[in-house]
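Why do we care about 3D structure at all? Because function follows from shape, and shape follows, mostly, from sequence. That is the central idea of this module. The next example makes it concrete: a single protein chain, its amino acid sequence, and then its structure expressed as tokens.
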Amino acid sequence: MRTPEVNKNGAISLYSQVAAEIRRAIADGEAAPGERLPPAIDLADVLGVNKNTVIRALHILRDEGLLDFTRGRGVRVVGTPEQSAVLVRIGELLDFARQQGYRSDEVIAIIQAQG
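And the structure:
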């Protein structure tokens, strides 16, 4: 298993680096769907960052569909990196479509017409 690293002096934000490390762990099979992640405080200790940085990274990964937060059960891996990548691209498409004046239902109709 690889030792996770973050560059505190780098141009990339710490929370983005933490999210990338967790994404990598999921992609490498270190954390499989259904498994619980360690508490944020433990992840922060391992990575050498503040707990709030880890929490922000976890929220990003939840929004990407990789993680699920359940009260009393902690943070679980629910998705795969491939699913996450698709969800990120869909979000980018919807943002672009909105900038072009399209509504979500119009984008869905366009996609359905393509398939």
